[in-house]
Amino acid sequence: MRTWLWVVAAAAVEGCTIVAVTKGASADGSSLTAHTDDAGWTAADVRLVHVPAKDHAPGSTRAVYDFNAGYPRLVTNDRGSHYAPREGQELTKPLGFIPQVAHTYAYFDQDYGMMNEVQLSIAESTCSAKTVGWPSTHPYGYNLFGIAELSKIALERCDSARCAIRTMGDLAVEHGFFSEDSGDPAAPGYGDSAETLAISDKYGETWIFHVLTGPHNASAVWAAQRVPDGHVTAVANFFTIRTLNLSDPDNYLASPNVESFAVEMGWWHPSDGPIDFTRAYAYAVPGPVLALYAGRRVWRIFDTFAPSLRLDSTLGSRVDYPTYPFSVAPDAPIEIDGVMELLKDHYEGTPYDMTKGVAAGPFGAPVRFDGPHVLKGGWERAISMYRTMFSFVLQVRGAAFDDAVGGTLWYGQGSPHGTVYVPFSCAQTSVPASYLTGKESEFSTDSMWWAFAFVNNWSLLRFSVINADVRAEARRWQAEAFEGQRGVANRSLRALESHNNAFATKLFHGWWALAWRLVGKYSDGYVTTDEGPDGMQVNGYPLEWLKTTEYVAWPGNTYKNPPADDATVFAASPSAGVGLVGVLLGMFIGIGVMLALPKRRREYHRLA
After folding, report:
1. Which parts of the chain span the membrane according to its record (predicted)?
2. Which of 147, 337, 575, 578 could form a disulfide with 195 if both were Cys (CB 3.0 to 4.6 A apart)?
3. Mean pLDDT over residues 86-93, rounded?
């Protein structure tokens, strides 16, 4: 038991969620590729960085770096001014180099590459696998590429999903792939030793790409499957590609060793029929925890968009057989705000509603903190989490539009349940300073990330009430953001960038203003709305929750009634009677004085 619980805890370090909607499944014909970045137990660099396009001289090389979560993510002179060294910073040492191409596209970058200037879009989710590998700087490390650098190279070099898959797959096989969360050789992290990307392009294709370390902790194995147009798919830290039809390259792609390595390891044999990629390569963790950690989110996403399928929420994701489809056709066209709302989800309205139950506390908080203890049991794993650093929906309108208006990065910082998705054109070259400011370890009112993080943390004081205020405010801002994108096709890139950055800056000031309003309104258990006699309320605890606490049993055996003969204490001596008379006389005098004073009364009482 200890083993599988620990593996799942490790897998939670980078447990991100993907939702990908093809153009034929969306309401406006855009593809929508969404991601929640659910960072783990280390501080993260909160900056949204634009890496500029660049021309390169013949014979140039491209440095490849290991992944670093904390600030600064990277220090180098070859990826624009935001990664250039500041005072006291040393250049990041590369793992190695590969030949550079003549021209690289500009793209937006955080932990992974997101979207480039020609609408190519990428979302990520870490998965389990039967193999594990490490970078070349580690013992038993024979590999050059993690998924962060692979995704960035794909955005630098490609405008199509197929190009991205071939580029990443070939580099991984040639130079070796490792997961940034593979642990170390003494304790390999099979629970998160592989990666999945959803990749969408302006030519109307959306693909799912799986990659893991190959033979002898080196090289790579990969496979990719196209999502049928008119479908939506989801990945939640578990492979989803099953049967590979390698005779159909329009819909399936794979590394040359995808079958031979499985045969070599005894994980598949041709007599079994067509290779099932997940069954061959996914790591099976005993027990229900990983199955539900992954599968429940997939069920929730599919059930939200295709409830008519009546999928079983209890199956989880299994290695040995498919429990959920690779993709589904939605019951109705999917709106972009529907995807955004889904990213804010905690299973509300289902049997797994995390705003209900004892663990939600008196005020319905869906937050369930991770911890170091190994204990039988578990929490539901929602899409929106307290440790989500950022999330996004990448909207690709397609080749019929100029790239500047065709691709939009709808970007939200902090936990999705308390964020606003801000539009940035895929081709704009700057973002406001507030999106480039701040460290997770240092509070800063100059940082957009900290504005959302502060409000989300303050909401935990009384989540059911405060988050309702936050959601209402977020809806107002989101509606303004959508309205501001009307007529976008008629704007120049310069005008579009100016408009987007002005809205982002306005939101920055507005969200900090909201933060301070919430501090004034919700403090010390009170709800204070004004200075009038009815301006402060004490709402206390919900009655049903109060009934489950020690309140109804208090004081229990901690208080004893005095004996019946205690009244005789006042008749012990004449002096006692005299003292009592004095006390009573003093009381009457005091009451008279009080009645003579101006009457002034507060309408509430506060316990000291």
Report:
1. 576-597
2. 147
3. 96
- Longest Cα separation, the chain: 112
Residue 427: per-residue pLDDT:
99
Task: Compute the distance between CA of residue 307 and CA of residue 330 in angstroms, rounded to an integer.
Answer: 8
Predicted confidence (pLDDT) per residue in 242-278, tens digit: 999 999 999 999 999 999 999 999 999 999 999 999 9
d(C-alpha 542, C-alpha 574), whole Å = 53
**Distance between alpha carbon 522 and the CA centroid of its chain, in Å?**
26
Residue 545 included in any domain: no
Task: Give residues with Cβ within 8 angstroms of 441, minimum separation 6.
Answer: 43, 70, 71
Residues 6+ apart with CB under 8 A from 474: 418, 419, 420
- Provide the domain count of the chain: 1
| Angle, CA of 281, 167 and 196, to the nearest 5° | 35
Does position 600 have pLDDT exceeding 90, yes or no? no
Q: CA-to-CA distance for 196 and 240, rounded, in angstroms?
A: 9
Residue 452: alpha-carbon gap to chain centroid? 13
pTM of the entire structure? 0.91
Secondary-structure percent of the chain, ordered helix, strand, coil, rounded to 5: 35, 20, 45
Q: Is residue 526 part of a domain?
A: no
Report DSSP state, residue 358. G
Q: Which residues contact 590 (CB under 8 A, 6 or more apart)?
A: none
Q: Identify which has the larger pLDDT, 231 or 487.
A: 231
Is the residue at 502 inside a domain?
no
Cα–Cα distance between 409 and 37 in angstroms, integer?
A: 15
Contacts (Cβ under 8 Å, ≥6 apart) of 371: none
Using CA atoms, how far apart are residues 381 and 292, in angstroms rounded to an integer? 8
- The identity of residue 110, as a single letter, is Q
Q: Quick one: residue 551, left, alpha or beta (phi over 0 = left, psi -120 to 50 = alpha)?
A: alpha
Give exposure, 243-269, as e/b (b: 16+ Cβ within 10 Å). Answer: ebeeeeeeebbbbebbbebbeeeebbe
Cβ atoms of residues 274 and 245 within 8 Å? yes
Instruction: Write out the H or E segment, with its range, that includes residue 200.
Output: strand 194-200
Residue 509 near residue 520 (C-beta atoms within 8 A): no
Asked whether residue 597 carries a pLDDT value surpassing 50, the answer given is no
Q: What separation in angstroms does the CA of 441 have from each of 46, 71, 374, 458?
A: 10, 9, 27, 17
Whole-angstrom distance, CA of residue 145 vs CA of residue 168: 9
Q: Can you read off the two tokens belonging to residue 29?
A: 């014909």
Q: Which residues, 6+ apart, have CB-to-CB distance to 445 below 8 Å?
A: 451, 512
DSSP 192: G
Write b or e for each residue in 48-83: b if 16 or more Cβ atoms lie within 10 A of its Cβ, otherwise e.
Answer: bbbbebbeeeeeeebbbbbbbbeebbbbbebbbebb
Query: Range of 358's domain?
Result: 15-444
DSSP string, 503-570: HHHHHHHHHHHHHHHHHHHEETTEEE--SSTTSEEE----HHHHTTSGGGGTTGGG--PPPGGGGGGG
pLDDT tops 80 at residue 4: no
Does residue 330 sit within a domain? yes
Instruction: Residue 403: give its domain's CATH number.
Output: 3.60.60.10
HEC-encoded secondary structure of 125-185: EEECCCCCCCECCCCCCCECECHHHHHHHHHHHCCCHHHHHHHHHHHHHHHCECCCCCEEC
Residue 415 in contact with residue 27, Cβ under 8 Å? no
Confidence grade of residue 372 (pLDDT, cut at 50, 70, 90): confident
